[in-house]
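Appendix C: a fully annotated inverse folding record. The material below is reproduced so that readers can follow the format used throughout the book. The structure is listed first as tokens, followed by the designed sequence.
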């Protein structure tokens, strides 16, 4: 498996800043401030900025309200924009769907009839990263949220997302098989222990409930309702991290650990489901695809979107343009 990864880590063309649109909530001062920080850091064209008004930061909005919001966003963005970053923490759900999936693949009302039922396959799933993800005729722009609860935390996250390496430093992708058996449904896709020499990358599969003191994390994937010892860890710039659990994507909820905690701990992008999905592996990032595609040089948003088969309930968060393995910058 590690040899297969190494054979697929060259020649990818990442999404460019000129292809990303920013969506600013003018009713939220932090959204306005952070969007400007992001625009400057990643040199986003001024024409790629859309302004909307969403008062009171609702966690969830109706499908009807979302339909109007999407029309307003799309009206303002140029046709050649291929991905969208919504600069806010909330709203993050459209009824039972995530707002990123509703924006990209359309609102899936059928999933809300039975949230624990199978989902619909995304047209972006398992696409080879030979070029930036193209737009299938039945899908919209891939999308992500940039949290806005703290301007300083957002500033640090954006700085991590701008890092590129001529020679990648030593780093490790960690995959944990935990004691929470029901949350181990994607263990079958964990890559085995080994090394991708061309990327100076170690791959480690561990049987334990949490990492303690790891200082070289580029990917951390696990299955836990709450992940312990995050304060002991050091994430490399551009690191991806997520946990398979029911409501990690309920970003402002406290029933389980919010995916926002990964970003607070130092990861640059993450993923979680906004409503109870049950433990279908297809509703969460596929470890092999995420690792293979990300170290090929594409962006975090492309790597995450290409790794989730049934993303209707899953919200993508962080810096979409993070691409530490991208060449040519």
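Designed amino acids, in order:
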């Amino acid at each position: 498996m590690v040899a297969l990864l190494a054979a697929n880590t060259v020649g990818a063309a990442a999404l460019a800043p000129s292809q990303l649109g920013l969506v600013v909530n003018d009713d939220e001062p932090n959204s306005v401030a952070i969007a400007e920080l992001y625009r400057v850091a990643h040199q986003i064209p001024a024409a790629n900025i859309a302004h909307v008004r969403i008062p009171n930061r609702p966690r969830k909005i109706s499908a009807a309200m979302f339909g109007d919001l999407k029309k307003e966003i799309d009206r303002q963005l140029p046709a050649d924009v291929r991905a969208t970053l919504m600069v806010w923490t909330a709203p993050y759900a459209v009824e039972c769907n995530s707002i990123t999936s509703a924006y990209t693949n359309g609102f899936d009302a059928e999933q809300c009839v039975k949230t624990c039922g199978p989902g619909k396959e995304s047209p972006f799933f398992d696409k080879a990263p030979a070029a930036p993800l193209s737009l299938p005729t039945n899908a919209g722009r891939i999308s992500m949220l940039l949290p806005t609860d703290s301007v300083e935390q957002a500033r640090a996250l954006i700085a991590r997302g701008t890092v590129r390496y001529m020679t990648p430093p030593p780093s490790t992708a960690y995959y944990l098989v935990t004691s929470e058996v029901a949350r181990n449904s994607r263990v079958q896709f964990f890559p085995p222990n080994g090394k991708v020499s061309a990327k100076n990358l170690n791959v480690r599969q561990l049987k334990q409930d949490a990492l303690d003191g790891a200082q070289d994390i580029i990917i951390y994937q696990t299955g836990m309702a709450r992940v312990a010892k995050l304060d002991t860890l050091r994430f490399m710039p551009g690191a991806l991290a997520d946990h398979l659990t029911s409501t990690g994507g309920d970003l402002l909820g406290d029933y389980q650990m919010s995916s926002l905690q990964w970003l607070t701990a130092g990861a640059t992008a993450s993923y979680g489901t906004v409503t109870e999905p049950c433990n279908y592996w297809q509703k969460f990032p596929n470890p092999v695809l995420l690792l293979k595609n990300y170290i090929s040089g594409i962006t975090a948003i492309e790597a995450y979107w290409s790794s989730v088969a049934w993303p209707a309930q899953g919200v993508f968060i962080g810096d979409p343009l993070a691409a530490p393995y991208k060449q040519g910058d």
